[in-house]
């Protein structure tokens, strides 16, 4: 059986080039869940304090590293959940995601959630990801 992720955007739902409405995994493969990523290095240095654009860029680089560590690529990604601290400019976060999103063959399913705060007051955004790695 072929393994695929099918992206759907029904005519009745909002169409936006930045995200898909539905992603369906089919076939043999592995679903990869990447836990919430923050703009922090492995040495505990916080990147982009006070700058949601830089934090978003850094987090998405970490997500790409996580995917690569599973022998997956950004094209295997199909779902992002983005937590943004209340009061942050969502447009600035989206600006930080542009370079990453342009790498994708299909825009992922995205959920954005505004939260009162995250685990560290210097974190302005946290992103979870889900990917489907096809068996060869």
From TrEMBL:
**Highest taxon listed in the record's lineage:** Bacteria
Provide the protein name.
RidA family protein
Organism ancestry: Bacteria, Pseudomonadati, Bacteroidota, Cytophagia, Cytophagales
């Amino acid at each position: 059986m072929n393994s695929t992720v099918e992206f759907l955007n029904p005519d009745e739902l909002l169409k936006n080039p930045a995200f898909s409405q539905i992603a369906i995994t089919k076939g043999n493969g592995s679903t990869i869940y990447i836990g919430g990523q923050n703009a922090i290095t492995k040495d505990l240095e916080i990147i982009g304090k006070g700058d949601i654009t830089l934090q978003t860029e850094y987090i998405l680089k970490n997500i790409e590293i996580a995917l690569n560590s599973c022998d997956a690529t950004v094209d295997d990604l199909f779902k992002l959940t983005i937590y943004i601290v209340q009061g942050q400019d969502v447009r600035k976060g989206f600006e930080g995601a542009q370079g990453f999103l342009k790498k994708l063959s299909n825009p992922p399913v995205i959920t954005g959630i505004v939260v009162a705060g995250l685990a560290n007051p210097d974190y302005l955004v946290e992103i979870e990801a889900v990917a489907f790695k096809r068996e060869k």
